[in-house]
Amino acid sequence: MLRRTFPLWLVACCLSLVAARGGDDARKYASPPMPEYRVDASGFGASGDDIKAVCSSAGRELWKYFPDYNLERFVVQRNKDGPITLYERNRKGEIVVKLDTEDTYWCQYAYQFAHEFCHVLCGCAETWPGNKWFEETLAEMASLYALRAMAKAWETDPPYPRWKGYRNSIGKYVQNVLERRQKLTRDGLKEFYEKHKEKLRKESCLRDLNGAMAVVLLELFEAQPEHWEAVRWLNTSPAQEGDSLQAYLQKWHNAAPERHQEFIREIGCLYGVEVGPED
Q1: Could you report the per-residue pLDDT of 68-97, keeping only the tens digit for each?
Q2: Which of 78, 108, 148, 155 is a Cys-bridge partner for 14, taking CB atoms 3.0 to 4.6 Å apart?
Q3: CB 131 within 8 A of CB 267
């Protein structure tokens, strides 16, 4: 399973939009439509329709780059011990995504959902965890990417028309997150990784480290968003115990279609790792 905790300050700056909903209908919201999933609203203290509207708003910003992905069905449920995506499917054969939020803290719903949805897109597979920090970094970056994209999308296509005015608040929310991240440049990523790689191999969820690297990858994915699709091949080949980062990224590179391979090589270069076509 994938378990994370979120700092308390995130709760304080979440949005409360409940008064703005009115009678708007968002059941058909989100284009392209999200893959099939359901929300079990038990324990959230909010409308299941509203929760799904916000989650779909975040998720579609990633999903639009997966045109032919036959994704497994999943369910969103309430958790009180941190957001998490379970490896084990439930009795209905669904992936279980759990969010640790409540009421109408919509930015927190969106932030956590985008993170967990990225894990689902990556294949949600249990494997040797020594390089799992990289997927955690991608997922942390997915939250930043989705909320920044939401802030733009809500100007013309909010879940409910009356929520349009909150796009600036979404932008401020994610900007607050970015300002709290450790400042790291593309040129400094290799050194940063080398300094912390032993910690990362032992513990994949180190929020400060994942977050710092996520900001660097955010620039890359925002410049070339069509390569979001590449993450669906991240876990195609199971990681073997002791795999180096080079071996991990090379497996990803080999599994991905040619249209994404140069992008994966670019990511490898940022970490000082050479991957490419095998002889």
Answers
A1: 999 999 999 999 999 999 999 999 999 999
A2: 108
A3: no
